[in-house]
Each structure stands twice: as C-alpha cells, then as structure tokens.
Amino acid sequence: MPFPEGFVWGAASSGPQSEGNFHKRHQNIFDYWYATEPTAFYQEVGPDLTSNFYNDYTNDLKLMKKAGIKALRLSIQWSRLIENFETGDVNQEGAVFYQKLFTAMKVAGVEPYVNLFHFDMPFELQHQYGGWQSKHVVDLFEKYAQRAFELYGGQIDHWFTFNEPKVILDGQYLYQFHYPNIVDGPTAVQVAFDINLASAKAIAAFRKVNTNPNATIGTILNLTPAYAASDDPRDQEAARIAELWSNDMFLQPAIQGKFPSALVDLLKNDHVLWDATENELALIASNQIDELGVNYYHPFRVEAPDVSPKSLQDWMPDIYFKEYQLPGRIENVDKGWEIYPKALYDIAISMRDRFGNIPWFVSENGMGVSNEERFLDDQGMVHDDYRINFMHDHLAELLKGIEAGSNCHGYFTWTAIDNWSWKNAYRNRYGLIRNEIHTQEKTLKKSAYWFNQLSRENQLPPSNFELN
Ligand code: BG6
C-alpha cells in the first residue's frame, strides 16, 4: 500500500542542537549550563559548535535532498532572534540569518516547518523570573512569537509553538536533566499550565497578525502511550493517571481547549492545582491548534507504585505510577528505551477516536545509537540497518493506522544530520547523514538511501533493502 498522496517525508532538528551559537548575543539555559559546568555533558562537548548549520546550511540542505528529505522541522532560537526580551525588539543579525535560511530552504525545495521553542529558555529569563514558572515570561514569549510571525509570515506555512512541553517539566522540574535541575512537583504543575497558556497566547497572536492564507499553527507533543503492566485494577489505575499526566494534560488543552477534568480533580484534591484565572482559561478555550506534531520514541509502561499515594511524601506525579520494564522487551540499549512500533498505531487510533481525527503527523521518530564507527565500511559509509528496521517497523504500524482512517499526513525522522543531544552531546547518533564532528565532514548513511527511495516512491521499501 502506498502512503496517501502528498504525504510529507521530512526530518526534524532544532536550533540549539544544530546551528552552533555563532553571533548569538544571549545565552540559553544550555549555553549557560555548559559555560558553568562543562563536565555535565558527555565528553564535555557543548552547544557552541554543534553541527555548524549556521555556516553550512546550503551544503546541508543539498545533502538532505539526496536523502529524500522534502521538509525540515527546525526551531528559531529565542535567544538569537530577540535582542530585548522585554520589548521584543529583534536582533538584526539573527533576523537576517533566519530570513536567509528560510529563503535557501525554499530554493532547495525543503519546506520549512518552524517551531518557536525547543527547550531553549533564554538564560536571563530563567535567572530573573524562573522561566516558565512566571506568567511574565509567558507574555514575553507571546511577544517573541508575534515578532516571528510578523517577520516570516510570508515565508512560512507551518508554525509550531512548542516542542515536547512534557520534557521541559521532566528535565527542569522533576528528574534533573535540564538546567536548573529543580525537583519540585507542584512547580512542575504550574509550569505545565503556563506552557499551555503560552502556547494558546502564541496561537492568539498568530490568528491576529497572520495574513498568509496557507499558514497553519500547531504544537508538538511527545506522546508516550501508557500501558498497564497487568489487569490488576491497581496497575490499571496507575496507567489511567499516567495517561492523564503525560499525554492528556497537553493534548486536551491544545485540541479541545480544556484540561482533563479527572486530572484537575486529582490535583485539586492534592492541593497542588495550578494558579489560573478565568481569563486565562477562556484564552486556552478559544485558541486551538490546526495540526498536531507527534514525537514518538517509546511507550510508557506502568504499574502501581510501591507505597500508597496517601503516604506522607512530597508531591510528585510518580506517587501515582511507577515505570515498569517489560521483561524480554526489544530495547535500544543506548537510550534504555523499549522499541514498540505498535504504539504508533495506537496513537493513530486515539487521534481518530478521541481527538476528532485532527490532522497530525509524526514530527519525530528515530533511533539514537552510540559508536556508529562499528558499522563503517571501507568507503566510510555507516551501514545502519538497525535504523532502517526501526523506521520500517514504525511506518508499517503507522500505515495500518492511516488505513483505519487516521488523518496522518507526514513522517519526520529525527534527524537529518547527526546533531548535538542535550546532556548526551554526540554520544548517540540519530542522523540519516553522519557528521564527523572534528572535521564537520558530512556523509550519507545507508538509511539515507533507504529514506530517499521511501520518499520518491511514497511506499515502504523492504527493511532488508540493499544498495545498488
Ligand atoms: C526529543 C527531542 O525528545 O528527542 C530532541 O525533541 C532530542 O531534542 C530527541 O534530541 C532525542 O533524544 P536525546 O535525548 O537522545 O537527544
């Protein structure tokens, strides 16, 4: 079966992970963290150079075309585009960079999908106001978003407000893998609300200033379907709450304009519900997305926690569920993530049945593997059959979901060219294209040829594909 006509074959990346921080006048939280604690990053490799996209994008786009990539999701860095966060005045050099980049993408035939926030809070706003803990920062984000729409509205048809809000909570406020590494459940609850509000405010700004009739706006969520470890009602209950917290807390406001009432009741009962005004709730209720990007890597299997949530303990979402590792699972051992393609079918069906069959696409899916030098041939090509298998098996499940009527219109792999990964730096490689980071030499991997055939034929090549 072919994929539907017009299905978009793309790749995803982000500004902080690919551009390098050339000519940036402000630090984001990762720039700052690396400058103050380089040992927190794998082999002390930081975000200063990354994959040199800032200087190399013309050549990079040519390579992407060779890999069959017809659309690229990337992000504008708030800390590059805006000179004065309070007024929203732009930095000219930053503004010109993005303008030239988007023009080059159009010329190269790589459609830009532009996201406004990919984990990269400007350090000053984190330091001065506590980042997403502050409603003032929410307003500054709206200002920045509006500037971006005004500057690039004529060039861009696909806008996105956020990448993976859930990971912002997890990294910054719960499990300590993004600066400032706070552990504070109730603050994470407030941040979840504030990000939903910021997204709605950016959508409102878009509706106000957009004059491009082809332009749409969406958001990007990492969905981790919650599966109970067993039929035991306690495990089932753990999965119900995990689903509310991990997925529905962002899905429902974005698509339906409201928070899940069961989650609101639970948080209220625990005395940790967010601060929200009637006006803010009304704003969320009246600003929905046009399309959804879904990042999918792994499922979320859960069981009941060891101790009852009624025990005296600091509030964390995990008082209601405990992660469960399925015995005998297939795993990407470099990440510790179970590989479970069927969840993509489940997501497709949930979009169809629970979310009004909203237009959606896979905005990230891919496999990060360490030490890919193991798979280099004499010609210097990485034979990444594991990546081909991974994409093949996920796409086969996605296709079943599409055949069942789910409204999915694209697949973007993470990523085109190996890029910098937060704390892991260049440990795990995700690209269809290899980057020798010491020379910045970039070469196609075997998966790039497979992806090219996929994109050309709009049909799944076999996973045991061979190069001619
Ligand atoms: C997603 C992010 O969470 O997964 C990307 O949107 C990230 O920014 C990707 O790089 C892979 O995860 P990691 O931690 O291995 O880089």
Summarize the structure.
With about 475 residues, this protein is an alpha/beta fold. The protein has a single domain (about 10-455), classed as Alpha-Beta Barrel (TIM Barrel), CATH 3.20.20.80. The protein contains 15 helices and 19 strands.
Structure report:
By secondary structure, the chain is of the alpha/beta class. The protein has one domain (8-457): TIM Barrel, CATH 3.20.20.80. 41% of the residues lie in helices and 16% in strands. It contains 15 helices and 19 strands. The chain has helices at 15-18, 29-36, 53-66, 78-81, 92-108, 123-129, 135-152, 165-174, 185-209, 233-256, 261-269, 278-285, 342-354, 385-403, 446-457, and strands spanning 8-12, 71-75, 82-84, 89-90, 111-115, 158-163, 216-222, 226-228, 291-295, 300-303, 322-323, 331-332, 337-338, 360-364, 369-370, 408-413, 428-429, 433-436, 441-444. The radius of gyration is 21 Å and the shape is globular. 6-O-phosphono-beta-D-glucopyranose is lined by residues 14, 17, 163-164, 167, 222, 295, 335, 364, 368, 414, 421-422, 424, 428.
